[in-house]
Design goal:
By secondary structure, the chain is of the alpha+beta class. The strands form seven sheets. It has a five-stranded antiparallel sheet, sandwiched between helices. Strands 16-22-21-18-19 form a five-stranded mixed sheet, with no helix packed on it. It has a three-stranded mixed sheet with strand order 2-1-5, covered by helices on one side. It is elongated, with a radius of gyration of 37 Å.
């Protein structure tokens, strides 16, 4: 120090010297603090990892929640969206917790002075000074103990957060992480759990409760301590009334409402689709689907109500789609995801199963396309041997000569196989491949005539996809359940540009088939809806199907057991079709008329057909020679070794077991365990009332004395 400066300091009055020294020390401290804060901001960023560890969400096309998953730590932590939160809740929250939130920089100096003065005056803490930003700092960096050092760190973090994020971002983060009791974090999880709704439409009493909970989330949990929750809520309401934020008359009404102790489960809609999407893209936090929550809820209700009319171990799958753009509106893999009896975790909308007669419309469509038949063309329904393949009708009876229209409506097997024989099974398979579906032939199976009656495997989703061809002039539109192209014309919705594929059928053939199926009689007890539909029942009563469509939508239903075991008496018409009609009726969708016939396409009576198309001639060598001995009788159902569950009515009465017979010469005599039981001796489809559960041997003897036997095991449901 120079002598000149030293002499000036000596000459300076002592009070002034002390002030200068104090200011210098304050400057040094401030400078050090500023440099320290700069280093703190640069080298110690706020720990924001918790904001990345959010619950995975599966949403519909309008962002409505279908299903959510807990975090790895088992927490419900759903991302908050400020624009989707009730404005009154935000106003109450800020008025109660941080009324100068929009003005301060993270620390509210006025609130701190007030809190410090109240502490000195009363000897205890009267009110806190923590801002929303400071509370967020505590949430992202929790401390076991409340200390002065922890408070200073919280304040530093608050300043840091304010420097990095906007006010809206800070408030959004707080409403994502705020604790609400148990494993609930964030306003959305709390609103869904306590009120079963998103926080966009909260009542005043609900908003006040959610403002009160984060202060003491465990002590005020409404599901465990409703009395404390009620008191805390009313305290918030009273403060808002005193502050003039809410009218006292409204506060009185809100305070009179009780607090429910019920905690609602999180949405679990479209459970199988949600699991599949999460597995396909495991790192995604948000999965957007093409579904509509309202329709999905209605369809799940329809399916659950239908299960009450069925055996407790039967499953149901359903797919509903917009046939024009391929977007799936609702899909259900089973009626109860957690059911052990129904094996509810198995997604039967994607399982490959035998479709029974559900592919017949495509056989007839190919025959129309080839110019072999028209709707009123006559075709023979009688026993025929197609080179060793002898198709039988479901009821074991024959209709004789029928129109092609009635043959399809009655789902007769012989005419369908005769037409498939003419167009070729390989050609049918090629058309199915054009539809972009996956099929599976039996092990070592050839592409033979049996595929027309269900001799291959296909999923419900793919079968439903094939039926979009009848809505789109013969072209299949692939079905998808994830969001495609945004639709700017429909706010919140999506539109998907349909993939152009080679036609499965010509537009002329597709229209004729739809025109036939629209006349199908509704199942017993169903409403007479203007929809076209077809049913299918697989061999051995394992699968029941029904697929229907109007001019815009397509809907498929499957009923059966996931383990592929037999369900005695189940059929597409009695089990699946009623669900199809009920689903269409309760979907909330308008039934759209079928498209107009293509140019040059028209209905023709039998008399208007050319002579060559008035009757379809089956190759003569295919008919069975009446002079040749018919094959010996064979019990086609149940197969030997089958395990059959004994069905019963809702009143507990046992249902008979249906038996089916092929070949042989009537009259027939049936025996169960060596004892004859009464039945119609001329029928090939009969019912048997077993004495009880256990092993049984069934035997049939025809008029020529030839016999066949099967051994089955009957078990109680």
């Amino acid at each position: 120090m120079s002598l000149r400066i030293k002499s000036k300091l000596i000459a300076m009055p002592k009070p002034l010297l002390g002030m200068v020294a104090a200011l210098g020390l304050l400057f040094i401290v401030a400078l050090g603090g500023g440099l320290g804060f700069v280093c703190f901001v640069k080298y110690s960023p706020p720990p924001l990892a918790m904001l990345d560890r959010l619950s995975v969400e599966v949403v519909d096309r309008d962002k409505a929640l279908l299903r959510a998953y807990t975090t790895e730590a088992g927490r419900w932590r759903l991302a908050a969206h400020l624009d989707s939160i009730d404005d009154e809740f935000i106003n109450i929250l800020l008025a109660y917790e941080d009324k100068r939130f929009w003005q301060h920089g993270g620390i509210d100096a006025k609130a701190m002075v007030r809190a410090f003065w109240q502490l000195l005056s009363n000897g205890r803490i009267i009110s806190g000074a923590s801002t929303i930003t400071m509370q967020l700092a505590r949430l992202i960096e929790p401390r076991d103990k409340r200390t002065f050092a922890a408070k200073l760190l919280q304040m530093a973090r608050a300043l840091q957060l304010e420097a990095r994020f906007s006010k809206r971002e800070i408030l959004t983060a707080y409403l994502t992480l705020a604790p609400y009791g148990g494993n609930l974090e964030g306003i959305r999880a709390a609103s869904l759990a306590y009120f079963a709704k998103e926080p966009g439409d909260l009542t005043l009493s609900e908003a006040a409760l959610l403002v009160a909970l984060p202060q003491s989330p465990e002590a005020r949990r409404p599901d465990l301590r409703p009395e404390r929750a009620l008191s805390a809520r009313n305290n918030v309401l009273m403060r808002m009334a005193n502050a003039g934020v809410i009218a006292k008359s409204e506060v009185a009404r809100a305070a009179s409402r009780p607090v429910s102790s019920l905690r609602h489960p999180m949405p679990q809609l479209a459970a199988h689709a949600a699991d599949r999407l999460r597995k396909e893209t495991p790192k995604a936090r948000l999965h957007e689907t093409t579904m509509l929550r309202a329709i999905q809820e209605r369809m799940e209700t329809v399916v659950k109500e239908a299960t009450e009319r069925l055996s407790p171990d039967l499953s149901i799958a359903l797919v509903l789609a917009d046939a024009k753009n391929g977007t799936i509106l609702a899909e259900i893999g089973s009626p109860d995801y957690l059911s052990e009896a129904r094996k509810g975790w198995v997604d039967m909308s994607r399982a490959l199963r035998s479709p029974g007669s559900a592919l017949k419309p495509f056989i007839y469509g190919l025959a129309f396309e080839e110019g072999l038949v028209r709707a009123e063309t006559l075709i023979t329904d009688r026993p025929i041997n197609f080179g060793g393949y002898r198709p039988k009708n479901f009821d074991m009876d024959y209709q004789g000569e029928v129109s092609v229209r009635n043959a399809l409506l009655l789902s007769l097997n012989v005419p369908a196989v005769a037409l498939l024989d003419s167009v070729g099974p390989a050609r049918l398979m090629e058309r199915l491949e054009r539809g972009g579906v996956t099929t599976q032939l039996p092990d070592d199976g050839d592409v033979g005539l049996a595929i027309g009656l269900g001799g291959l495997g296909i999923s419900l989703k793919d079968l439903t996809q094939l039926y979009t061809s009848f809505v789109n002039g013969g072209r299949v539109v692939p079905l998808v359940d994830t969001v495609g192209i945004k639709d700017t014309k429909n706010k919140g919705g999506t539109a998907r540009r349909p993939e152009r594929r080679a036609p499965v059928l010509s537009d002329n053939a597709a229209w004729h088939i739809a025109d036939i199926l629209i006349a199908a009689t509704p199942p017993e007890g169903a409403s007479n809806l203007a929809i076209a539909y077809k049913t299918g029942t697989s061999y051995g009563y394992r699968d029941a199907w029904s697929v229907g469509f109007d001019g815009r939508h397509v809907l498929g239903v499957w009923v059966g057991k996931p383990d592929n075991s037999a369900v005695p008496g189940i059929t597409g018409r009695t089990a699946a079709a009623p669900i199809l009609f009920e689903a269409f009726a309760k979907s909330g969708l308008d039934i759209m008329p079928l498209s107009q016939p293509p140019l040059g396409t028209e209905r023709q009576t039998l008399a208007e057909l050319p002579p060559t198309m008035q009757r379809f001639k089956i190759e003569a060598n295919w008919f069975q020679d009446p002079n040749l001995p018919e094959p010996a009788p064979k019990i086609s159902y149940p197969p030997s070794g089958a395990q059959i569950e004994m069905g019963q009515t809702s009143q507990g009465q046992k249902l008979p077991v249906m038996l089916k017979l092929q070949d042989g010469r009537p009259p027939f005599r049936w025996l169960a365990n060596g004892r004859v039981f009464e039945t119609n001796a001329n029928r090939r489809r009969v019912s048997w009332n077993p004495d009880g559960a256990g092993q049984s041997t069934l035997t049939v003897i025809d008029a020529a004395g030839r016999a066949d036997s099967v051994s089955v095991f009957l078990r109680q449901p």
